[in-house]
Amino acid sequence: MPTSPLSQEPDEMARETETLILQRVASCGQKQLALAVGSSETTVSRWNDGEYEKWAKALSFLGLRVVPQTAVVVTSEYLSSVETLARIGLKAERKRPGPLGWD
Which CATH class is domain 9-95? Predict the structure, then answer.
């Protein structure tokens, strides 16, 4: 059973962050990343020797997350509220006589 992002250990969050960074670097390429940050491709290549891991751990320690730009991030309180409203709505819908409203 997957754990909630809020219950993850810092090391696990750091590993996920590093994995996401490595996936993105692989998808755009070290050369493009080097151009974007004003470094040489050799410098960016050396970052694979623990630099990404170090920054992922630092971000995790600071309580920060790396997410794709397309991600929608909400607080745990907001998510809990939406879950509660959904549960109440489904309970009410099940009590309705006749077919479900979305059938």
Answer: mainly alpha
